[in-house]
Specification:
A 6-stranded mixed β-sheet has the order 2-1-3-14-6-15. Strands 8-11-7-12 form a 4-stranded mixed β-sheet. A two-stranded antiparallel sheet has the order 4-5. It is globular and about 65 Å long. The chain is an alpha/beta fold. The protein starts with 14 loop residues before the first helix and ends with a helix. Helix 3 packs across helix 13. The chain has 18 helices and 16 strands. 39% of the residues lie in helices and 17% in strands. The protein has 2 domains: 15-151 and 314-378, 3-Layer(aba) Sandwich (D-Maltodextrin-Binding Protein, domain 2); 153-312 and 393-425, D-Maltodextrin-Binding Protein, domain 2.
Length: 429
């Protein structure tokens, strides 16, 4: 997913390496780490790490810091920007924050995150961090956060539905429509059925269509940004997507994707554009439908050019330490534990997300290998400190809703969105 910037870096679990990485006052306090007494507040986002991983991280951390209490508070993506705006400048901010990679720039530019440039080489896998996440953590040549995990999207599908309809995964966008129409016909007696379930505000899944036709969100020249969604290439991609949504989806055209995995588990959906970790939600014994475990498959979002794949938005999160945290050494140590090799491997195999290092991409086996592979053809949103304001203004979701509900045509909706993006990225309101 997406957001901000200034985090503590990955450190080895070994105390000796941790002390070297933190340096300064952090290093001196770590000499007596077992004697430290404090309460550490950690903000993680809903759905980022399985509870089992969080529990193990806290247990490992507790073994080194027995007198430190860690309060992990789960936040929601919908209002995290507003909460961070209020909390980070305060006297008692959360010590550790998970930031979506597209919003890091805002908080780094505001001085809300610790500059960890001098500590990078002391952290696990810092030489092989995913480049897009490293880029999101970097502003004006300085490092403000530690890459946490990435998520690339592919299409999760029901193998049994495909088999009964006599179709196979398509290798083009035209093929996606043809397959979808055959699935709709095969399930025409089910008024709730969607061949491709697509909630209207799902802008992350819209970007591959824009990019595949050569369009973009915005371009930069001479230090100035210009919205590019109104270009003919961007409009072509969005028109293609709108046609798919119109013919294949019965999802709420004004809703978001937060619960699409739960909807998929109910049995009235053949395909969703999703992150790899959503497989685990769909088959969860408590909240999902474990009977679907052997019926799920995945394939890359196809390009309009047959045999190729569309570029995906490489979302993800970074981990940072608040610049006003009173426990920066402990915050660094907690992040080091979570992003060390042991728990990164768990995030990949249990959580189903792409770990923060290229050295672990081989952990993507089975269905996850599709998502890990999709990350190789990816793009990112404009890396501007004002991008967070574009997200907070809901420019892209609002544009899509207007298109899908036919409140506006593609040309008018994209022009309005492009004009708004131009204004915001260049510092306007």
């Amino acid at each position: 997913m997406m957001f901000r910037k200034s985090w503590v870096t990955v450190v080895s679990v070994a105390v000796a390496v941790l002390a070297a990485a933190c340096g300064g006052s952090s290093g001196s306090s770590n000499n007596n780490s077992s004697n430290q007494t404090a309460t550490l507040t950690v903000w993680l986002m809903n759905g980022s790490a399985p509870q089992s991983v969080i529990d193990e991280v806290n247990a490992d951390f507790k073994s080194k810091y027995p007198n430190v209490t860690v309060n992990v508070e789960i936040q929601q993506w919908g209002d995290i920007g507003t909460k961070l705006d209020t909390a980070l400048p305060g006297n008692t901010p959360p010590d550790v924050v998970e930031l979506g990679n597209t919003l890091v720039a805002k908080y780094a530019a505001a001085g809300a995150l610790e500059d960890i440039t001098g500590k990078k080489t002391g952290f696990d896998n810092s030489a092989t961090w995913l480049q897009s996440l490293t880029d999101s953590c970097t502003q004006a040549g300085k490092l403000y956060c530690v890459p946490y995990y990435a998520g690339s999207r592919a299409i999760i599908y029901r193998k049994d539905f495909f088999a009964s309809a006599g179709v196979t995964p398509p290798d083009s966008m035209d093929g996606l429509l043809t397959v979808g129409q055959k699935l709709m016909d095969a399930h025409k007696s089910d008024p709730s059925f969607s061949a491709l379930y697509y909630p209207g505000k799902y802008w992350y899944a819209a970007l591959p269509f824009v990019w595949d036709f050569g369009g973009d969100i915005a371009t930069q020249s001479g230090g100035k940004w210009s919205g590019a969604l109104s270009s003919s290439s961007s409009q072509q991609g969005l028109t293609t997507l709108s046609n798919l949504v119109s013919k294949l989806s019965r999802a709420d055209k004004t809703g978001d994707e937060a619960k699409q995995d739960a909807a998929f588990a109910q049995g009235h959906i053949a395909m969703i554009i999703a992150n790899g970790w959503e497989v685990g939600v769909i088959t969860d014994p408590k909240a999902g439908n474990p009977a679907l475990k052997d019926q799920l498959g995945a394939f890359p979002i196809p390009s309009h050019n047959a045999g190729q794949t569309a570029p995906v938005f490489l979302g993800g999160s970074d981990l940072g330490v608040a610049s006003r945290s009173k426990h920066q050494d402990l915050a660094n140590a907690w992040i080091a534990t979570l992003t060390g090799n042991k728990h990164m491997a768990e995030m990949a195999t249990v959580g189903g997300v792409i770990p923060n290092t290229t050295s672990m991409l081989s952990l993507g086996t089975g269905i996850n290998s599709i998502f890990f592979s999709a990350a190789k053809n990816s793009k990112f949103v404009p890396n501007s400190q004002n991008w967070a304001s574009v997200e907070n203004a809901n420019v892209l979701p609002d544009m899509l809703v207007k298109i899908f509900t036919k409140q506006m045509g593609v040309a008018d909706a994209t022009k309005s969105a492009s004009d708004r993006i131009t204004t915001i990225l260049n510092g306007g309101g």
